[in-house]
Design brief:
The complex is a heterodimer of chains A (125) and B (141). Chain A has 125 residues and is mostly helical. Chain A is 80% helix and 0% strand. In chain A, helix 1 packs across helix 5 and helix 4 packs antiparallel against helix 6. Chain B has 141 residues and is an all-alpha fold. The chains are: A mainly alpha (125), B mainly alpha (141).
Chain lengths: 125, 141
Amino acid sequence: MLAELVLFLLVMLAGTAGELCVARAMRTVGEVTDFRPAALLGVAWRTMRVVWTWIGLGLMTVGFFALLGVLSIENVSFVVPVTALSYAVGALGGRVFLREQISPARWAGVSLVCLGVILLVAGKR
Amino acid sequence: MTSHKALHFKTNLLIVLMVTFSPLGNLLLRKGMKQLGAVTAWAPAEIMRFVGTVLHSGMVWLGIGSLIAFFVSYSLVLSWADYSYVQPASAAAYGVSALLGRFVLGELVSPLQWAGILIICLGVVVVGRTPPQTTEQLYAR
């Protein structure tokens, strides 16, 4: 039971924290305005030189393996609705870690997405 | 700073690419792996042979290409748009997956699932009406 709880927390927190770190890395690189292939290769090179990229990829890897672990214990129809909460964790992380302004409308949208994902997976049972 | 309309346009364009390429990549990988069949032997030599077969599947490579296109779009949009905007908006991929499953693979989609898809779409529309960028380039390397 404790192992299961730890795995669920890792799926939600490590996976979302990883994406937040990648988001921070991309904001550090700066807004991409030139979409020609050579310019995009330059963006990829600059992204690889930002430490947040590697922290993010590491955390996303932890989250992925935690997901595999939790799927070996629980059914996907139970796991996915629980991990839908990561949308709320992501919005909170965006507010705290990336200093984004989250309006009540955006919170409402995030809540609807969480509810929709839960219904979508509940309908598969 | 990009103008408001142009910012919305390029953000939504990349989100459309994300919600197209991610389910498409998963679908192509699934079709490719179904064609190859399940792994039945776990000896190292058998696994290597299976990996070799997988790497010769055009469908698998198309799937990998789609997922790379998804990741590139995702990274690019995060260079200017809020994570808290992109993450819920990309949940529209759940709806695209269900539609692909229904109309390409002929899977059944229950009324409860259709309700879930509608609510996700509603959530995406609500998020989409908020400004995609609420921060400046504040971060030092």
